[in-house]
Amino acid sequence: MAELLKDQVPGLSVEEAFDMFSAVAPKGWRVELIEGEIHVTPPANGEHEEIVSEVTDQVVQRRKEQRIRSYTGIGLFLPGASVSGKVEPDIVLAPKGSFDDQAEYHDPSAVLLVAEVTSRSTAGNDRVKKIRGYARAGIPVYLLIDRESEQAVVCTEPSGEDYGAKAAYKLGEVVPLPDPLGFDLDTGRF
């Protein structure tokens, strides 16, 4: 996509093309820069949003630490993911006040967990490219709700380009989330 735009506008960098796509994207569309590639994603379907909403509700109800908040629509700047990685996870868990500035993309250092719910158009990024970016950024927990494989995968112990520990659960099972969350996520409610 960026290559097409670069051919039409000589000298346009990927970052400049990303900024252009972000500025003109229709409401609800997500524009991300992952490992140097621009990805434009249409609004999610209802099932996707039901899962995001259920995870958010369970976090609010079951969190041990009351300062933890569940955010949707938060952009994260992951420079380790590429020259200039800019992503918008489906869910970000972080202490209250972590994103109380005017920035569109935020430093991920306060993030405790990111969660992605796969869609047909984004599943490859969620399973491969984003896991590398989140691990490189040192995000402690990556929760992947993979609708196609009907699994919830909890990735912990970020190291280099991957997570050292991964535990997969069939959707419908109870999924233990590590501290500081320290509660069980009931995927049977999805």
Automatic annotation (TrEMBL):
Listed SUPFAM superfamilies: Restriction endonuclease-like
Name of protein: Uma2 family endonuclease
A GO term, aspect molecular function: endonuclease activity
Putative restriction endonuclease domain location: 23-186
Keyword Hydrolase: yes
Protein keywords: Endonuclease, Hydrolase, Nuclease
InterPro entries: Nuclease_put_TT1808 (IPR012296), Restrct_endonuc-II-like (IPR011335), Uma2 (IPR008538)
Keyword Hydrolase listed: yes
Species of origin: Streptomyces lavendulocolor
Organism superkingdom: Bacteria
